[in-house]
Write a structure and sequence with these properties.
324 residues, alpha/beta, TIM Barrel, eight-stranded parallel β-barrel, two-stranded antiparallel ribbon, binds ligand PBG
Length: 324
Amino acid sequence: MILQRRPRILRTSPAIRSMVAETILTPNDFIVPLFIDEGKNVQTEIPSMPNYYRRSLDLTVKEVKELWSMGIKSVLLFIKCRDELKDNTGKEAWNQNGLMQRSIKAIKDAVPGMYVMTDVALDPYSSFGHDGIVENGEIVNDPTVEALVKMSISHAEAGVDMVAPSDMMDGRIGAIRKGLEENGFTRVGIMAYSAKYASCFYGPFRDALDSAPGFGDKKTYQMDYANRTEAVKEALLDVEEGADIVMVKPGLPYLDIVREVKNAVNVPVSVYNISGEYAMIKAAAKMGWINEEKAILETLTSIKRAGGDLIATYFAKDAARLIS
Ligand code: PBG
């Protein structure tokens, strides 16, 4: 054959392949979700998330130091609230001495350079396991937004770098931005979970925090996975209201949404490679059906290729090790 173009030329050796690689993962891409528990020297493996742990604050601080030494720059904090502190107002969420607030302080004290983000939503604190306040079986928007503003300000007071509202209430980004401004927190950022879908893949996470909804589902606030245009609408609204970063979540089954949002906004896009995505790779690897390390790198690269500037992932440590 006499061919004008031979695309395989750019794939002939590892050298040329790496020279023309369009997407390169670095530890700067990763945000590490951390599950924090009360107590001392406590480390509990999440049953549906093998090799992932919920840790007491002392061990969490140790972990954060290790992450920092591996070149990882950001953590995203979640806490497991004690049952007796849960109620329908979620008020433990803005307790200045709450586990979250103590965690922010301890981590920033131990590793000041680490960029600390916090999940903002009422579900870990809610006796109903919902992201908002419940009235007559309904998750009410505006009172919930007021609670989220209080929660965000309390995180800011504790020294957080960026709050990450994951609740999907209307108008919360604008309200949180206003609250931060009015209280002088002009350096605190907002990473909005803008396109967060009602997904079955959150299951393992809800095991980790014991935060599964006590009744119904989250479909009146999280998005319908049939929709794409709606994701762009949500992302644009959040940018308008003051989001510094917008997020798409879940990751892998939503790469079309990632690209769509990436093309629509002028802020960085983050993607949450969530608990169910982690569990699926772990399970298949355990069965010997896929190569875990290769699956991790291929997954994270595909998310970045789709348009994810940042990736929240339980594989961050593994990936940082694999790419170093
Ligand atoms: C809570 C929240 C959830 C996740 C992050 N923040 C669960 C949910 O909305 O039910 C899921 C993360 C994961 O599955 O890894 N608002």
